[in-house]
Design goal:
23% of the residues lie in helices and 28% in strands. By secondary structure, it is an alpha/beta fold.
Length: 324
């Protein structure tokens, strides 16, 4: 699985960070999914290999502008680039009202179908091309959700010992079984693919959360995942000083939650603009990292714009940049 962070700031952009957006895809696949679409997301896309014509779905976590104000522009750009294929939009119901108001007031017309799904009515185990996606409610000032993605279509690997044991001859029959087909046996009956193949690797699983002041909301969603992407808007001391009204998480909260589940990988994002790399004009971003590392012993990352993370079939996570 590949994630490209298009924006990692909360509320407002900074010189280094745009507001929320993260792209999800599988290696060697051009199709992709976008989670959140803050203002300026389409500008960030111009410096990546991602094409709006290959975008298959957009998942919006909640209605706050830093997570959705980029939607009209992105949809319009897809129209101008000649998109004709349907695009799925999963979001809270007010997002659809917002888009209809923009369409009407700006005379924006789309020649491709925009298929809207109210996130509260998302069917369990909804199949979205390369992923199975489900939504999980969070705790925020407005209804907010996390999305859990499970890889679909993991290739099958032949169980050679079973094939040889049952004297199934090499050749086309093996190929058919690997493709998931049942094949007739010489002595009668059928050989089923599930009896002679197994997944080449365990389906990769991750959760990408929206704004949330209670990571515990995600305990069930995170039970068997490889990676959690969660906001860490403040450090604990700053959150105490600000108070609970913004309804965001601290790095300490998220780290403690990830530790309690022994999650292998944790990526923090959605940092308040008050945190700057080096801290020359604000609080040092290192404060969030130090706080998280104190409470979490797993593989920890603080996302930056244009970071590309690769979650490999063996469960390892690597980071580089799309700008390299």
């Amino acid at each position: 699985m590949q994630l490209i962070f298009l924006g990692t700031s909360s509320g407002a952009p900074t010189r280094q960070r745009n507001v929320s957006g993260v792209a999800l895809s599988l290696p060697r696949r051009r199709d992709w999914v976008l989670v959140d679409c803050g203002e300026g997301t389409q500008h960030r896309l111009l410096r990546t290999p991602l094409s709006v014509l290959r975008l298959r779905a957009i998942c919006i976590t909640h209605v706050h502008g830093d997570h959705c104000y980029g939607l009209p522009g992105l949809l319009a750009s897809a129209q101008l680039n000649g998109r004709r294929e349907a695009l799925t939009l999963i979001a809270p119901a007010p997002i659809w009202d917002y888009l209809q108001a923009v369409f009407t007031s700006t005379a924006l017309h789309l020649d491709y179908p925009l298929e809207f799904i109210d996130v509260t009515r998302l069917p369990a185990g909804f199949e979205l091309d390369d992923f199975e996606v489900s939504a999980w409610p969070l705790s925020h000032r407005v209804p907010s959700f996390a999305y859990r993605f499970v890889e679909r279509g993991v290739p099958r690997r032949l169980r050679v010992d079973c094939l040889e044991r049952d004297a199934i001859p090499r050749g086309p029959l093996w190929g058919a079984l690997q493709r998931g087909e049942a094949v007739p046996l010489a002595g009668g009956g059928l050989a089923r693919s599930e009896d002679y193949t197994q997944p080449a690797w365990r389906a990769r699983r991750l959760v990408i959360g929206g704004d949330n002041d209670s990571p515990e909301c995600l305990r069930k969603a995170c039970r068997d995942i490889d990676l959690l992407v969660h906001e860490a808007t403040y450090d604990a001391e700053t959150l105490i000083r600000i108070g609970s009204a913004p309804m965001h998480s601290s790095a300490a909260q998220v780290a403690g939650f990830a530790q309690s589940l022994a999650l292998p990988h944790l990526i923090l994002t959605h940092f308040s603009p008050r945190y700057q790399q080096g801290g020359a004009r604000g609080l040092p971003l290192a404060r969030l990292e130090q706080e998280a590392r104190a409470g979490y012993s797993g593989d920890l990352w603080l996302a930056a714009d244009y970071d590309r993370f690769e979650l490999a079939p063996d469960g390892s996570l690597q980071r580089n940049s799309v700008l390299e």
